[in-house]
Amino acid sequence: MADKPVTTCRFVVVAEDGRRSAVWRVWTGDKRPTDEVYAAPRLRASEVKFSLHSSGYRQFGHTGPTRGAMRAGDRAAIARWQRVEGTQLGHWDIALMLSFADSELRTSPGEVGSKVTRIPAAPDGQQTAS
Length: 130
What we know:
By secondary structure, the chain is mainly β.
């Protein structure tokens, strides 16, 4: 029996003193990988997400339940943009960069799960980009 493909990655940026970012979820497809990629802070994924589509269309916007609660005429997308030529690095398309400033990391209650990748934070006064 073949291994189930991995379609989700979770990560958190953690400072030496334990302060951390939100846990972020990056995923593609529900049951199998696709060319569509999504990213969101894990606890807010039911409200907002980044959508990166193979067509080159990108969006940051509200998701299902939040979108359904919006007033008629409100925009579901907070920001929209197209892929820009020259943002490729080899076979990789640099579509989204998240930046985690040391000053914005917080002490958070609760444990980070064992399946969450921990990324060391940049030194004080700098930021980590993922």
